[in-house]
């Protein structure tokens, strides 16, 4: 029921989805109907000390045996995987089907910067915007300092919805350009003020919240489902790798990749689940801290880091579950290690933002004795355009004559 007392019901849509409801990650026996999507985690199992997310459950018996390998009638991108996603009520932008590039023997990079707004967040926002459309919301509201806000604005525009983005005053230039182009209402403010105001906007105007509203991250109950498609695509192209290394903030992507592989194994389409390695900035690392302490979620003090996309002070239980259940590990990487990984990827033709290089940086911290068997996949989450700084200054122009050009080439190691 909205603020005017009108009962809002989901729009009936023709969907290939076999989603049946929502299930608490705090207690799998606690279930909810599919609608409305829960935006504050599980109300029965959560407390002031911990917030437990919910996940979407499916009628797995209705999934065809050629789900992973067959050509389906649903389409490409996320549509290909529609049965194991919440209903896709909003139009897409061609998200998904990102390349899996081999950069060394048995070492692959899943390049998520090739999504429509240059980040993995497009997979999440296709699903969460679909929820807003299905619920009849007039718009979406999101608290984000980067990729999430840009993506939410794009998918809202595509669906004909308004979008309000509560963001940091230090907004990266590329993200600011995205938001302006898509017509989002941008409200820069201190970080701690964003979540209470997002909830107030949702309550006052009926906007659908597509980001987190809880003390320990739970996020939108449908959101992480979009990330499962990363696992499906890896498995369809490569099979099941030995491990996947994932840049990690709140842990939604990490959980989605793990759940995708769990589902494929449950369906008998694969025979195992890869180890999941979370890769957080050493300046914070709440997921690593929660695993050390043996708790579902915790809070840390975040030091200085340029990896602004994943410098979270709190973790979500999803990440704890993914690492623990996959026999994985929580890794911490510093800015120097991420910059080295960023340069390594650039040498392979991939320019990613610093946060996006955390996966490869995490892999490079392992000793030879710690390396996993089988192929390894590092997820690179977003484009280098999303960084807040570090762009080279404009080069002084040449006059077009040979000698100055030759000197520049020699300085670059070309010629003698």
TrEMBL record:
Its cofactor is pyridoxal 5'-phosphate. The keyword Lyase applies. It comes from the Bacteria. Keywords: Lyase, Pyridoxal phosphate. GO terms for biological process: isoleucine biosynthetic process; L-serine catabolic process; L-threonine catabolic process. Pfam families: PALP. Residues 94-381 form the Tryptophan synthase beta chain-like PALP domain. The keyword Lyase applies. One of its GO terms (molecular function) is threonine deaminase activity. This is Threonine synthase. The lineage of its organism: Bacteria, Bacillati, Actinomycetota, Actinomycetes, Kitasatosporales.
